[in-house]
Design goal:
The chain is an alpha/beta fold. The protein has a single domain, classed as 3-Layer(aba) Sandwich (Rossmann fold), CATH 3.40.50.10230. 44% of the residues lie in helices and 10% in strands. The chain is built from 9 helices and 6 strands; from the N terminus they run H-H-E-H-E-H-E-H-H-E-H-E-H-E-H. Helix 5 packs across helix 6 and helix 7 runs parallel beside helix 8. It starts with 12 loop residues before the first helix and ends with a helix.
Length: 213
């Protein structure tokens, strides 16, 4: 056999990291965002490779300050799916915050089938005892965000922050519009339209954890 091919590519992990974020800042227009959202936006772009993402970012209140304070105070993180939960970097959490995902809890699948609803919606109903002051991190199911808003409308305890990044073609854009139009005085960060996903939701949480005081 002949010599193996050798490709020319950057190999040093620190150099890759630094260059990646430098490219994001060179190519993305962050000018419409509050200054304290810049670092979060950069990490969202890094997670998906789409430098136009800031154009669709939407927020209410001061999601960065609210999220940082909640995490620093030990607030639990409520994730809609295991992909979000496993995308969160535990070692970066400032107070060893609990990360809770109830999607696979006993009885959720059976109840969802009986009621003709998604497991994600049923799983959110099990968040109630953890909701007060929590950081909600939704990165998959529009029905999870819709159900959360329904629970809040029925006087469920209010979280400190909602990171709402459901993805898809059915209900994703609509659920995020519902979040933006909701009457609750809860800080939020979301992404208009169909785009979203577990990687983006986890990146938002990780960005807040990294920058928490």
């Amino acid at each position: 056999m002949g010599d193996r091919s050798t490709y020319a590519y950057l190999r040093d992990p620190d150099a890759i990291y630094e260059r990646s974020f430098a490219i994001v800042r060179e190519e993305a227009d962050l000018s419409r965002l509050p200054e304290n959202l810049h670092a979060v936006a950069v990490r969202l772009i890094h997670a998906c490779g789409m430098t136009d993402l800031p154009l669709d970012l939407a927020w209410g209140g001061d999601p960065v300050t609210a999220g940082q304070a909640a995490l620093q105070a030990g607030a639990p993180i409520l994730a809609d799916v295991e992909m979000v939960r496993h995308g969160i970097i535990d070692r970066s959490l400032p107070a060893r915050n609990a990360v809770i995902c109830t999607l696979n809890d006993d009885g959720v699948a059976a109840a969802a089938k009986t009621r003709g609803e998604t497991r994600s919606a049923l799983a959110v109903e099990r968040w109630r005892e953890h909701l007060a002051g929590a950081v909600v991190c939704i990165g998959n199911a529009p029905t999870a965000l819709f159900r959360l808003l329904e629970l809040l409308d029925r006087d469920a305890p209010q979280p400190a922050l909602i990171l709402g990044f459901p993805v898809g073609f059915v209900g994703a854009a609509e659920s995020k519009e519902a979040l933006m139009a909701s009457p609750f005085d809860i800080p939020y960060l979301t992404l208009r339209g169909r785009r979203g996903g577990s990687a983006i939701a986890a990146a938002a949480l990780n960005a807040l954890a990294r920058t928490a005081p």
